[in-house]
Amino acid sequence: MSRELSVAIVGATGLVGRELVRLLFQRHFPIKALRLLASSRSQGKKLLVGEQEIEVQETSNNSFAGADIAFFGATPEISRNLVPAAVKAGAVVIDDSPVWRMEPDVPLVVPEVNGDDLEQHRGVVAIPNSSTTPVVLALWPIHQVNPIKRVIVDTYQAVSATGARAVAELTEQARAVLDGKNVMPHVYPHQIAFNLLPEIDVFLDNGYTKEEWKMVQETRKIMHEPELAISATCVRVPVFVANSAAVHVELSHSMSADEIRNLLREAPGITVQDEPSISLYPQPWTAAARDSTFVGRIRQDVSHPNGFAMWVVSDNLRKGAALNSIQIGEDLIARNLI
Ligand SMILES: NC(=O)c1ccc[n+]([C@@H]2O[C@H](COP(=O)([O-])OP(=O)(O)OC[C@H]3O[C@@H](n4cnc5c(N)ncnc54)[C@H](OP(=O)(O)O)[C@@H]3O)[C@@H](O)[C@H]2O)c1
Fold first, then answer.
1. This model's pTM is above 0.90
2. Cβ < 6 A, ligand 1 pocket
3. Where are the domains of the chain?
4. Secondary structure of residue 270 in the 3-state scheme
5. What is the mean pLDDT of residues 33-60?
6. Which CATH topology does 5-128+321-334 take?
7. Tens of pLDDT, residues 159-199
8. For ligand 1, atom 17, which residue shows the shortest CA distance?
9. 75-113 burial code (b ≥16 CB/10 A, e <16)
10. What's the topology of domain 132-158+196-316?
């Protein structure tokens, strides 16, 4: 890699932020100086980066002087308020929040799919929602050879996709339920332990939730298919890490399960786990803490001659957030865009 960069991480103490710190170090990102930023609550806290301890600073408008690249993994409010300050200070921002994703001049990028969109960046690049990224990653290689006509996605999303408070809530509720105690929900509208909630983010006038609508809009933007027919139902499940999705696809022409399996085996970022005879298929438990997006249960859809179905599982904190952000950074460096 080329020159070393001055890097800032906003939200360094959160679930995504800690993964960013870990992966930047593991992937030997070319760092000259690393600034760890969070709220005033974390001011002075020390985080381990490799063998070095770095003190966390409170985030402000002035946090970005001299930074070449800033990873934002804090709250939407912080992204809304401080991304412009970081860009003004000269940093290229990679933002994990939903705030800038649909802005026309902000590339929304999964590098294996639309890395070329980075060429158009004007200081901000957004990553997709953690449930959208793995689905697009799995659709893309198939779309290249057999254009997709319609997609129906049902997701099973982990609580860590909501942040650290939700992880604590599931832990506490699970203990309480097993101890026969009453449960008081705080993060979610209802109990999440031993339950499923078909409500992620707010409800919109069209009956979809905002999370489902993000899946629709973001998939279209990343794939440059503004008219793609796509519908989603997003469900929160009592799983700590890794989002799963049942994906039903209508293609332009019929394709065998073997052909689809072979395409996906060759695709970057994907591992096919599909051996029903030995119960081998992707699971959140085995996808957690892994970089790959896992695909299995690939089969022709008996309800449509050009249809197939697949099951996609991916770590929401890795490919769904930190890993995708760092890959964008690496791609920007490789393209000389920083
Ligand atoms: N979790 C996922 O799977 C996922 C996937 C894709 C995108 N994202 C996006 O990534 C972002 C972070 O998510 P997360 O799951 O890591 O959340 P989280 O665990 O709740 O962490 C939130 C982080 O934001 C910081 N923060 C809160 N208020 C702040 C303030 N006023 N100033 C500066 N920093 C502040 C927190 O710092 P303190 O510790 O000091 O409070 C913490 O570091 C969100 O925008 C989310 O939409 C998350």
1. yes
2. 11-17, 38-39, 41-42, 59, 73-76, 78, 96-97, 130, 160-161, 163-164, 316-317, 320-321
3. 5-128+321-334, 132-158+196-316
4. strand
5. 96
6. Rossmann fold (3.40.50)
7. 999 999 999 999 999 999 999 999 999 999 999 999 999 99
8. 163
9. beebbeebbebbbebebbbbbbbbbbbeeeebbbbbbbb
10. Dihydrodipicolinate Reductase; domain 2 (3.30.360)
